[in-house]
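Revision sheet: structure tokens.
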Amino acid sequence: MHFEQRSFYSRYLEKEMPFNIYGHTGKPVLVFPSSGGSQNEYADFGMIASCSTFIESGLLRFYTPDSYDNESWLANNKSAHEMAEAHNRYEGYIINELAPLMTYETDTASLIATGCSMGGFHTMNFSLKHPDVFDTAIALSGVYDARFFTGDYYNDLAVYFNSPIDYLPNMEDPWFIDRYRQNTYVICVGQGDWELPHLLQTQNFQKAFEEKTLPAWFDYWGKDSAHDWDWWNKQMPYFLDELHKQGKLF
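Predicted:
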């Protein structure tokens, strides 16, 4: 398998940001790490190996950037507003620096976003805020309410616009709605150990999609399916295979 370790200086984050690339060609997949995870996490926990069929065949090319969570949503010394502002700088890095590099290198107009746990939060937040950049999202065991990180944010708009469970029900802009209806959203959660808060958030998120009559695949795995890499290693190739059968990985 083709593998690269790379980095560049982000003017948004004012620091060098490393990322890995797995695969020689194919539609680009941007992987958001779990809480505070590094660019190596996805491979270290077996996810690249689990997806190797899609990578080695040239169907997909995975990009795994380092996280910025410890400076944003996990920075407990910051106010909710400061957390959101830090995240917005990370958003600038992803949308204006890394994503354009990915589309240029793969000669592809749009990306797949994916992530597990906190990576699932980023997957859906970025995909809903930028449906022109990400046409496919696969979120595993995510949370979709920024209060999970901030507590009550007292209607701070910087937080609100990064809390999908809040802004999606109020979305009326036809530009966004039209793209949501063209895109592909897969939201999965288990019902086993350590999944309860993620299960409840996924159920509430599904209600928001249904109230907006937006198409999405919400998939609830069984009571043996835990909030753990062993299960995400089963779920990710399963969903990639199903999307491939539907012709949605091109």
